[in-house]
Amino acid sequence: MSTLFSIYKREFTSYFVTPVAYVFIVIFLFMTGIFTFYLGAFYESNQADLEPFFRFHPWLYLFLIPAISMRLWSDERKSGTIELLMTLPVSITDAVVGKYLAAWSFTAVALILTFPMWITVNYLGNPDNTVILASYIGSLIMAGGFLAIGSCISAFTKSQVIAFVISVVISFMFILSGFPMVLDLFQGWAPQAIVDAIASFSFLTHFTSIKKGVIDIRDIIYFAALITFWLYVNVVVIEAKKAS
Amino acid sequence: MSEAIKVKSLTKSFGPIHAVRGVSFDVNHGEVLGFLGPNGAGKSTTMKMITGFLEPTAGTVIVNGHDVLENPLAVKKSIGYLPEGAPAYGEMTVKSFLNFIADIRQLTGSNRQKRIDEVVERINIRNVYEQSIETLSKGYKRRVGIAQAILHDPDTLILDEPTDGLDPNQKHEVRNLIKEMAQDKAIIISTHILEEVDAVCSRAIIIATGELLFDGTPTELIAKSDRSDIDHAFRLVTSGKSDANKEPTS
Q1: Phi/psi of residue B47, nearest 5 degrees
Q2: H or E stretch including B6?
Q3: A169/A162 Cα distance (integer angstroms)
Q4: Cα atoms in the Cβ-side hemisphere of radius 13 Å centred on A57
């Protein structure tokens, strides 16, 4: 068994031996429900699709994903287990990727448990299930982006609170850069290329296009590059200051 | 006796603070080296550098022929290490923790469970095997840490205060364990308890303010005192430093 998989297995099971997993999943399901039915006006729209459900995912992830990722490395520092981990025959890359994939799988579990929503919409009408599938995939990939940011930030500090707050702020900037209120600021005077460049950094822009049912290779490349970048920085940070 | 650990001019600075200054020593297989010194002397820092957790500012560490900077994974494979305070994942049970270590150490097949059982019996943690580590007493936590370090039957063992927090009986057990393992392994232990050095170590090293002050057998250390008292000898060596070397730097 590879060391990466050993790390992954340990991390993933550790979510379920503490209340963290259950609290997170219950709150996630509860919040998606509220957003979909009240803010998203799921019934009133009279549309057999899950757009009102997926529309709020970036905003939910903004707060919930940093709550998962904040402990990834901060906790290792705080409890001193980072010394144990880093003196076992494990490469730092294996440790970073193993922990990250475990957190990602955990969010996948939470996301899969929203399946009653999918059953509901299929019971009420005839939705385009390929669009729904694409949206689920897009949502999971976007969660991976938020997680990579959070994992990297948690490597900087032994305080989970600091890790949480900074991760939320950085994630917020990645959402905001595609928002009309930011883009309108540039729309009037900046060349279209710059406006597009700013918008292209946004999770929202990429998620919106996937949400329409089109999984564009450019959106996938964007998230893959983003995840790789943050995890790479994560490895560098652990390497440079594992003991401090 | 073949050479297991070779430490040469090891130096570590944290900004302006010199934690370890040019420490050199060797440890052979079959030896138990006792690391002595006042708190903050640089004992743990030296151990962290040997195990590859800290990078030295200068100097080299060779473990079983591998340079710790050039080939850290090979060094980590051949070492069993109990870090200071015996950190472990608190939410895990002893069982799942030892299985995780077995995974990482790539113990497979029939040998794996056999080895886990042996260590659990030997360290005497069977009765807490299914408990989560955060609920254990200090003594049990320490023993889980030792179990983790010896699980893969390493060639070289580095134990930072292995008997800290243990009651007298447990201390006795751990000392016997170390003596037993000493026959074919190279072992470094750090301790504050001086009788322990006399009881288990074949050699002792005293470090204070980052410098090596003594390297010899426990008998030689005791001989330093006209009262044949190891505590007295230790005080002579460590306080002699601050009295005799009143350099402008210190």
Answers
A1: -65, -40
A2: strand B3-14
A3: 11
A4: 29
Please indicate if any CB of chain B lies within 8 Å of the CB of A6. yes
CB B89 within 8 A of CB B123: no
pLDDT per position as a tens digit, A37-80: 888 777 777 777 788 888 889 999 999 999 999 999 999 999 99
Could you tell me if B85 lies within 8 Å of chain A, comparing CB atoms? yes
- Is A86–B96 a contact, with Cβ atoms under 8 angstroms apart? no
Q: Which residue has the tokens 């904040």?
A: A70
The ipTM of this complex is 0.89
Asked if residue B1 lies in contact with residue B153, where contact means CB atoms within 8 angstroms, the answer is no
Distance from CA of B153 to the nearest CA of A (A): 14
The kind and range of the H/E element at B22 are: strand B17-28
Measured distance CA(B90)–CA(B92) in Å, rounded: 5
Residues of B in contact with A13 (CB under 8 A): 96
Q: Which residues of A touch B91 (CB under 8 A)?
A: 14, 17-18
Q: What are phi and psi of A103, to 5 degrees?
A: -65, -40
Mean pLDDT per 10-residue run, chain A (244 residues)?
Answer: 91 90 92 85 76 88 94 94 95 96 96 92 88 92 96 95 95 84 78 80 84 85 94 95 76
The answer to whether A2 faces chain B, any CB pair under 8 Å, is no
